[in-house]
Design goal:
CATH architecture of chain A: Alpha-Beta Barrel
Number of strands of chain A: 9
Largest interface: A-B, 33 and 33 residues
Largest sheet of chain A: 7 strands, parallel
Helix content of chain A: 40-55%
CATH topology of chain A: TIM Barrel
Oligomer: homodimer
Structural class of chain A: alpha/beta
Radius of gyration of chain A: 20 Å
Number of helices of chain A: 15
Distance between the termini of chain A: 46 Å
Strand order of the largest sheet of chain A: 1-4-5-6-7-8-9
CATH class of chain A: Alpha Beta
Order of helices and strands of chain A: HHHHEHEEHEHHHEHEHEHEHEHH
């Protein structure tokens, strides 16, 4: 654990981080507010089912085995980098692993996704969770990260990640994927203090988990708030934000942090105030519009519609160029690219053709030719 | 079929409709722009599983039998009115029935919801759909509506409804409920013209279907665009809106039309331009904020979080009063209530306690005591 509680940015030097291992990385340069010849690009879920080499491995090992075997998790993390040379790798893992470490039985059921057979649904259920010894229970994640870091060159940072406590609770309370999140929301209306106790406990474990990732070589972190968009702005600030701030204070200014929220158009003014380096947004709003709402300080990450990668390569190139323009127009000055990390608005879809993923990545890799 | 194509509103008399059977109805008064002593209230899915009398019927008949047997559908429609005296009844039916009439096999599978075993996924598949004889295939809906209309007094209008073509396509193309809507979105990027052909065909059937509902006594209509929020504003305007406008032109100015969209905070500026009487919004944005975005002309319907009805009656009353204030402050002048139909932001949840549904309805029914 390290020092906490300092403001993440100050006005004179908003992009300073204690640890920045690679200065030649486009991704880290953008996180530091520097201008780059082209924006960096990676894809959420880039280590995944659209890759034949992933499907081959997955046919031999179940999902949790892949996550928990460091050499396999490292291999899966590196597969997309070898094929497409993205500008960042993101560790292959699942956001729900820390909940398992806290004592919640976790299964992955084919077709149904994650399942918690004994969900936590009220204050009394909290007794079934404990504070884990993070190295002992999640050390496989740190080992995989070290392995990945050894394999990557300086130009390609590796990202760690965690789900936000609210989003983890969305699965833990519902027992898996849910349509209406009635148990979670019901708890929030019945006993807000009890639910916030759960969120704080998850936050405390997340701090140690993310610190372990930083210590193992993660050069930036992404926080996924997949289900924050369920809440209106006032309730998001009251319910979901405190545990996010707790995590941000806990990990301090060591590495850039990017915050992802899906379906949060109504939350943008509030998210723009978060003390993070960047905001990763879904595909529902054009990036220049997002920029107008959140202001000039934050890095914006995103936001091609993942389904656009199911169209033709020509159309993908056209849309990627449009995205680059919107990301570029959002930055100060006309020289180079600033403040934009290109990504999808959500994870790449499993049925995405390889040539289409390639068309997207390459369109960004050649952005400097388009815009000069 | 009747005359089409006229502009729905003109500036001098924005609230004129050819058919307005009951002037004493709060719901219809608000639709006509009149001031009322208290706002009308009803609940999406008010005829449904939270009611023991519904569950009793449902234990004896499957879902489609309930929909297709006019006396049963009418009975289910009337159940919540008898218990709570809402200010509008809405016909018990399913948005997917017109697709079945077009030749798509439709099943309801316990736990999985609706299922189309042979989804329509490309232009070539369109040959499997046909233009149905609406009276012959959906006449049971019209019979149920007539039955309901006979049973209700003048103060309680009955609403007809349909899904928007985009939302119906979301089910028909995916084959049921979907997480990513990859087939639908993929089609939209591969062959937009083909998908729009499907949407137009659905729109044409919807026009006849809604006209049949009006002829059978529906005094207002609601269009449900549950999945429109998947699209950004530009794509919603290009893909989803044309078939909505086609329907609105087709049914003309006979009755008020309310447009519901879930998860559409990013679409509000565009929805505010729709030629409809009212906009029904989900719970993610406070109603006074929605009003600021869409302007003063439209009736706003909504928007208590359905999950709020899982809290305590005291808290429900408090939140309903807050909602009434936000809806009220959104109207012109300080006398009476105007421009607000109280509802939930989405369908009432099956596990909602009866006393909580009652607390919500009653809080609105006594709004005049609170605000005088």
């Amino acid at each position: 654990m390290v020092s906490h509680g300092k403001a993440r940015k100050d006005a004179s030097n908003p992009w300073k981080f204690a640890i920045l291992r690679a200065v030649s990385s486009l991704f880290l340069q953008v996180c530091r507010g520097q201008s780059v010849v082209r924006p960096p690009v990676w894809m959420m879920r880039q280590a995944g089912r659209y890759l034949p080499e992933y499907r081959e491995l997955r046919s031999r090992y179940d999902f949790l085995t892949l996550c928990k075997t460091p050499e396999l998790a490292a291999e899966v993390t590196l597969q997309p980098i070898r094929r497409f040379r993205m500008d960042a790798a993101i560790l292959f893992a699942d956001i729900l692993l820390p909940l398992e470490a806290m004592g919640a039985e976790l299964r992955f059921v084919k077709g149904d996704g994650p399942c918690f057979p004994d969900p936590i649904r009220c204050r009394e259920d909290l007794g079934r969770l404990h504070r884990p010894e993070v190295e002992a229970t999640l050390g496989y994640v740190f080992k995989a990260l070290r392995e990945v870091r050894r394999e990557l060159d300086e130009a390609t940072p590796v990202l760690g990640f965690a789900g936000t406590p609210w989003t983890l609770a969305a699965y833990l309370v519902e027992g898996g994927i849910s349509k209406h999140h009635a148990h979670l929301l019901s708890w929030s209306y019945r006993d807000e203090a009890g639910l916030r106790e759960l969120l704080d406990r998850i936050a405390d474990v997340s701090i140690e988990y993310l610190q372990g990732q930083i210590d193992a070589g993660a050069q930036a972190l992404q926080l996924f708030d997949t289900w924050g968009g369920l809440l209106d702005a006032e309730r998001w600030q009251r319910l979901a934000r405190p545990s996010v701030l707790r995590i941000l204070e806990g990990i301090g200014d060591q590495v850039p942090v990017i915050f992802y929220l899906r379906g949060g158009a109504h939350l943008l003014p509030v998210l723009g105030e978060l003390p993070v380096t960047g905001l990763s947004v879904d595909w529902r709003q054009p990036l220049d519009e997002v920029r107008r709402i959140v202001g000039p300080k934050m890095v914006l990450q995103g936001n091609l519609d993942p389904a656009a990668l199911l169209g033709t390569p020509e159309e993908i190139r056209r849309q990627t160029h449009d995205l680059l323009r919107r990301g570029r127009s959002s930055a100060d000055g006309d020289v180079g690219f600033q403040g934009h990390i290109v990504n999808l608005g959500h994870g790449i879809l499993p049925m995405t053709p390889l040539k289409n993923a390639g068309a997207f990545i390459e369109a960004v890799q050649h952005a400097d030719e388009i815009f000069t």
